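Appendix B: complex inputs.
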Amino acid sequence: MHKIPKLSDLRDDANLALLIRQVREGLMHQLERELTAIGVELNYSQYLVLKLLAKYGPQMPGDVARCLEHNAGAMTRLLDRLEDKGYVRRQPHAEDRRALSIDLTEAGQALWKTINNCSERIQNTAVRDLEQPERERLFDLLKRVRDTLEKTP
Amino acid sequence: MHKIPKLSDLRDDANLALLIRQVREGLMHQLERELTAIGVELNYSQYLVLKLLAKYGPQMPGDVARCLEHNAGAMTRLLDRLEDKGYVRRQPHAEDRRALSIDLTEAGQALWKTINNCSERIQNTAVRDLEQPERERLFDLLKRVRDTLEKTP
DNA sequence: AGTATGTAATTGCCTTGACAACTATTGTTA
DNA sequence: TAACAATAGTTGTCAAGGCAATTACATACT
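Resulting structure:
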């Protein structure tokens, strides 16, 4: 008769994918908690879209999708929801009649003022226990891993 | 009249969440590509469950779920699929009649022999451009970020 | 023992997001 | 310029996975 080992408290810390997943979950959870705490109903992706529009001005959905590593179909529906909430507006694109130009409405800009530093705060929380040079190293290492994976196929 | 900046090739590399997402996507994509290449129909999570069972022996679904940072309901359905494919078996747990003991079938063990080094290979690919000490640093930094986020609430 | 509380797995419901098919427009090439 | 390919956005369909409610069993408390 053989004893089943207790797995519960075991952690496979040599597994990069798992580690990544845990960090991701942590970041998303934290941001969404913070947003709901101040009464804002946005998920991570929606937040990032607003951030992008606030930072870089009006954009085409496809570009936003690519930038956020998102599928185009997903972006359509994400924008539907942001539009429903009144934070975002679809407008015809000046130079390409297939395309759209998405921009923030007044409500969107107002909202942004109140949530503008959320993700920075979360990110700072996440790296709270790292020294500044360690933070830079983390980013550098992650970038290199990403780039390696990207050009692998 | 103001020019809309070209976003397409722009990369917000200061965004931890985005970077994490890109790495995650890369890892998952790579693994699933490799699996389908050898004719195995498994997604990342299913793969990890098999790995866990192969490595640590029979386990309770709940423990597997916790270990893989998964929801219990999701685990139920994930196991349904693995059971459909015949890789895994649910058996009554010896000491707790609420619980189950999941173990690999013969087919599951045979499969594992053929895919056993997949995730290691992917992971090695991912960190291919890092020196050994850099790899260790990456893991260390990620673990610390995860732990920080975990005890933040 | 008897009740309350906790835990294991399952299920229904829902959201997110991927993929592929489709339409409309643009760009390219013969 | 006519045909063809590429691109922008939308839509249907689907799988993954989270959450809450439920059922069955286990543990703790008194």
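Chain B touches chain A through 68 residues (CB under 8 Å).
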